[in-house]
Amino acid sequence: MQQGTGFSININSGDRILNAGAGETLFQALKRQNLYLPTACGGQGKCGFCRLRVRAGVCSKPSDVEKKLLGDTELARGLRLACQAQVEGDLQIEIPHSYYSVGEYRVKITQKLPLTRDILLLRCQAVEPRLIRVEAGCWMQWVIPPYDGGPEPYLRSFSLASDPKDQRNLDFIIRRNPCGKGTAWIFEKAQVGEMLTLRGPNGDFHLQPNNREAIFIAGGSGLSAIRSILLDMCTRKVTRKARLFFGAVSRRDLYLTEEMASLESKLPDFQFIPALSAPLPEDNWEGETGLITEVVGRHYSDCQEMEAYLCGSPGMLEACLKVLLERGMPAENIHFDKFVTSC
């Protein structure tokens, strides 16, 4: 019921009843009441992650952003982007129950470890609360404090790189964005002992519960989520066949190779396959060469009964999709996270 200038938001048939002000977006209203929806852009209408279903009630008409990111079919089913839908009356909405577990956490930076010239591993320790429930392959939104005179924090999303069994210490593998203010803070300003806020866990990039052969393909900092999944497989003693293809330009762009190779002795049917697209003479490289998609293509001719997990640049993802689909892998068996690059 309308109360003064406010409206009610009925979530999942009465699971929770929240309020919203007239003109407030659903994203703003839910966040204000500590219900955090997935977002890689902080509610700016760029990522399309904060989708939910409006079952009944009055809200603004779909924006051009929603028409682009959702399309007519999903809009007809009542799906909306919470950051675009403005509340104009009482609403009944539907969200996945997993959203209830997304929280806000204070953490302390405990380690900054350079891995390459533009990639580092950063470890955070949970402070309040002291444990963070995470899942292999998930990502967390970082609330990076304003440091250059701006009034608002920078919101950036990074994938978990550690074994989720450790709910106190979280690793992230982060690559510096040359034009990114968020990663500039991480590389130049952030100090061991510094406190910051994380929100999550988010995402659905998880190992599927089946026995198909898994093809992992990573480039750059894309090893982060895949490392988390592989470490979790070791913990859970997963025995399925798996291959990790890790692409870089030259040897100086590879990292954690010894750790990845060591997993071959921990996972019964796992193989680590690094590859360089342009090895330098001084690299003395004797491994696979060429673009990582070329390497994958040389290893597989038929992928119909397999599935893939991709982490890397948009160009790499597109090229991998082409190769895997050409070799018969069903599109629904190809899993990857789409992130928005913020400068």
Give a short overview.
The protein is α/β, with parallel strands linked by helices and 343 residues long. It has helices at residues 26-32, 64-69, 71-76, 181-189, 223-236, 257-262, 292-299, 314-326; strands at residues 6-11, 16-21, 51-59, 79-81, 87-94, 103-114, 119-128, 139-144, 154-159, 169-175, 195-202, 213-219, 242-248, 270-276, 288-289, 306-311, 334-336.
Description:
There is one protein chain. By secondary structure, the chain is of the alpha/beta class. The chain contains 8 helices and 17 strands. The protein has 3 domains: 6-99, Ubiquitin-like (UB roll) (Roll); 102-202, Elongation Factor Tu (Ef-tu), domain 3 (Beta Barrel); 213-336, Rossmann fold. It has helices spanning 26-32, 64-69, 71-76, 181-189, 223-236, 257-262, 292-299, 314-326, and strands at residues 6-11, 16-21, 51-59, 79-81, 87-94, 103-114, 119-128, 139-144, 154-159, 169-175, 195-202, 213-219, 242-248, 270-276, 288-289, 306-311, 334-336. The strands form 3 sheets. The chain has a 6-stranded antiparallel beta sheet with strand order 9-8-11-6-7-10.
Give keywords.
Elongation Factor Tu (Ef-tu), domain 3; 8 helices; alpha/beta; 17 strands; single chain; 343 residues; Rossmann fold; globular; Ubiquitin-like (UB roll); six-stranded antiparallel β-sheet; 3 domains
Give the topology.
Layout: E1 6-11, E2 16-21, H1 26-32, E3 51-59, H2 64-69, H3 71-76, E4 79-81, E5 87-94, E6 103-114, E7 119-128, E8 139-144, E9 154-159, E10 169-175, H4 181-189, E11 195-202, E12 213-219, H5 223-236, E13 242-248, H6 257-262, E14 270-276, E15 288-289, H7 292-299, E16 306-311, H8 314-326, E17 334-336
Parallel strand pairs: 1-5, 12-13, 12-16, 13-14, 14-15, 16-17
Antiparallel strand pairs: 1-2, 3-4, 3-5, 6-7, 6-11, 7-10, 8-9, 8-11
